[in-house]
Write a structure and sequence with these properties.
The structure is a homodimer of 215-residue chains. By secondary structure, chain A is α/β, with parallel strands linked by helices. In chain A, 43% of the residues lie in helices and 17% in strands. Chain A contains nine helices and ten strands.
């Protein structure tokens, strides 16, 4: 495993730049400046240059970046040169919404198994999937080579589901349950808390337009 | 409106610290060190100190922070000393999941109106709300003093809904549609893209444990 010391916020922004570049490429744009990337995603041009500098030398002074090259490079860094099958625990409203979430598929992520313990949900069809009992998750993880799990179950069931995922060797978990899960150190959890986004908004309703870049 | 120049990532972390402090307070903890906050939320102690330093002097050397005081202070900075009624456009799976999302209510956010143009959804009950036609949104915004809108409609309808929100003076929008919305400069959009979280995970599956703090 390679070493690459970068702030997590840089990785987050790299993912956002990468998607923006993809959109430019789809629209036939071949060259882009750091200023245009900055404006497209809402950060400062200096921030774009600083973030990209973590990963090497890009672009030519006065010419900018080659869109296709930079897009491919960002996807390589983000480990998106392969498909990522995922296991989803929880087939409620959130789980159902995640199964139909278009952005996942566009970036190579695919929920290939949906699991629930609720007898009223097992057997239900969501898109081209059928909700399976949670006990069948280990077998599907193995068969499909899954390395990423998504937890969208009620809070009370979240730790138990995380334990099951860990026992079955998943090393990356996206957790929607509002709880801090206990997992071994070699398992990475990413908690999605939608209130955080709202609180950035309310902060801005008070102190508008006062961000500075992180340099 | 006050001026406060801080990186957006600091505001995001402040929201996370604030929630962590709330949990400590609920559990009867009265004092906490920057190291304990850091461990609880997964950043470096120096990052915690640096983030808090943007907002003033806190804590006593060797004693740490008073949990209740720091919690109240973070909530004040985040503009959470008042309730925030919100209008939600889109009553599909995602919209329904958002209406039942517990984290919102815990922080004073409340969806007080759900709107959709789909005749099969209008009139549907979600929790204690009834889905209303989109054309009734302006009236509800006015009556309830709403300042935050949430967009959870299909991509093709997102810009039109954003325009409607802007015309009705909403200045903060949380957008789940995978599209860059055009809004006037005085309106703040926060795009929620769940793939970004996944891409931080896949990056880590390649370059594990190599983050550095942002100092």
């Amino acid at each position: 495993m390679k070493t690459l010391r970068v702030p997590e916020a840089t990785v987050t922004r790299l993912s956002i730049y990468s998607r923006f570049l993809e959109r430019l490429d789809r629209n036939g744009v071949t060259s882009v400046s750091s200023g245009e990337i900055a404006e497209g995603v809402g950060v400062s041009p200096a921030q774009v240059r600083k973030d990209l500098a973590y990963f090497g030398e890009f672009g030519t002074r006065g010419v900018g970046y080659n869109v296709k090259d930079l897009m491919h490079y960002t996807m390589k860094i983000l480990n998106l040169t392969q498909p990522w099958p995922m296991a989803l625990a929880g087939a409620g409203n959130l789980g159902t919404a995640l199964c139909t979430y278009r952005n996942f598929r566009e970036r190579g992520f695919a929920i290939v198994g949906v699991f629930d313990n609720d007898l009223t949900k097992i057997g239900k069809r969501i898109e081209d999937l059928t909700v399976q009992p949670l006990e069948e998750m280990p077998q599907v993880i193995k068969q499909r080579g899954i390395r990423i799990g998504i937890i969208a179950v009620p809070t009370r069931a979240a730790q138990e589901v995380a334990d099951l995922m860990v026992r079955n060797h998943l090393k990356a978990i996206l957790n929607f349950a509002p709880i801090a899960l206990n997992v071994p150190e070699d398992v990475m959890i990413r908690n999605v808390d939608l209130s955080v986004s709202l609180e950035v908004l309310t902060f801005n309703l008070k102190y508008r337009g006062t961000y500075e870049s992180e340099e």
